[in-house]
Amino acid sequence: FNEKLSNPQKTIEVIQKYEFTFQKKFGQNFLIDSHVLNKIIASADITKDDFVLEIGPGIGTMTQYLAEAAGHVLAVEIDKTLIPILHETLASYDNVEVINEDVLKLDICKIVKEKNGGKPVKVVANLPYYITTPIIMGLLESHVPVESITVMVQKEVAMRMQAGPGTKDYGALSLAVQYYCEPYIAANVPPNCFMPRPKVGSTVIRLTRYSEPPVATENEQLMFRLIRASFNQRRKTLANGLNNAPDLHYTKEQIAQAIEALGVSASIRGEALTLQQFAKLADILAKQ
Ligand code: SAM
User: Fold this and answer.
1) Mutation pick for ligand 1 pocket among 126, 199, 202 (CB with most ligand atoms within 8 Å)
2) What sign does the CA torsion over 171, 55, 74, 104 have?
3) Could you say which of 54, 118, 149, 237 would form a disulfide bridge with 123 (CB–CB 3.0 to 4.6 Å)?
4) Taking all residues of the chain, what is their mean pLDDT, rounded to a whole number?
5) What are the residues facing 202 on neighbouring strands?
6) How confident is the model at residue 83 (pLDDT cuts 50, 70, 90)?
7) Could you tell me if 125 and 146 are in contact, meaning their C-beta atoms sit under 8 angstroms apart?
8) Closest ligand 1 atom to Cα of 128
């Protein structure tokens, strides 16, 4: 397999040779389009100085592009039937390491420290869509040193990541992503660029990690609890959402006072608050 895998013929050839069967439960939709791959590599801004973590290499289609652009690639694949395939398709690259693990069970922080001396890595992936949110939240919330995360996700999820207050896509994911990173939509990708074709449209989004969050709060944990409580009950007011949250223990009066101190209407809905306002609300309530 000296040629690149990024076309339907090569992909079919590999799959047939190994009698590989696609597993729906692993979200397997392999890229078969070289333009899309070049676009992902360019958006991720990979250079020979970079250590790249790839989640879910599949048969190694994107890994080949990453290996050519990066200094080192660590690829984590859950499906053990893909491992012998990857050994063959990546045989000519000496800067790629494949490990057979579930990325959600892996201590990425520890691995990155071991393998890259704790220096920040770039994450690049065509993600398995069934676990997009846990993967992204895990990378953001744990202290994995990452410079950027460039990922193919379901279009609708990309919209949620970059949505602002008052829009239908705005929610806990938008706020978490935007607290840690600056999102940038790099490309929309139609189903025919994958094998098999997914039922939904896809988007490449780059999340560039801030060195400091864009808003300051003394109690990050409380802020995220407030955010979750506000969006758990979308149609309710902010006050009701906070009153009903099992992990918040403020009285009705304390909540009403805090909302007043924030300087917004008592009947405001959580979905109208900006990240700055959630940060301020957390600081107000933390003092109660
Ligand atoms: N990178 C390949 C490409 O672009 O053609 C494959 C992308 S495919 C959408 C997602 C890949 O993630 C599959 O290879 C799948 O087996 C793998 N995967 C699914 N769940 C995983 C998990 N929990 N940990 C690691 N890899 C996983």
Assistant:
1) 126
2) positive
3) 149
4) 96
5) 154, 189
6) very high
7) no
8) 10
ipTM for the assembly: 0.99
Taking the centre of ligand 1 as the mean of its atom positions, its distance from the CA of residue 75, in whole angstroms, is 10
- Contact at 8 Å (CB) between 285 and 226? yes
Name all contacts of 210-214 with Cβ < 8 Å and 24+ positions apart.
210/180, 210/181, 210/182, 213/179, 213/180, 214/178, 214/179, 214/275
pTM, rounded to two decimals: 0.95
Q: How far is CA 16 from the centre of its chain?
A: 31
User: In 214-274, which residue ranges form alpha helices assigned H by DSSP?
Assistant: 220-232, 238-244, 252-262
Q: What is the rounded radius of gyration, in angstroms, for the C-alpha atoms of the chain?
A: 21
CA nearest ligand 1 atom 21, residue: 78
Specify the pLDDT at position 232: 87
The number of the ligand 1 atom at minimal distance from the alpha carbon of 29 is: 9
Residues at the binding site for S-adenosyl-L-methionine are 29, 31, 56, 77, 102, 126
Q: How far is CA 140 from CA 23, 163, 173, in A?
A: 28, 17, 11
Length of the chain: 288
Closest by CA to 286, choosing from 252, 253, 250, is 250
Q: What is the pLDDT of residues 234-251, one digit of tens each?
A: 788 999 999 999 999 999
Strand partners, 98: 75
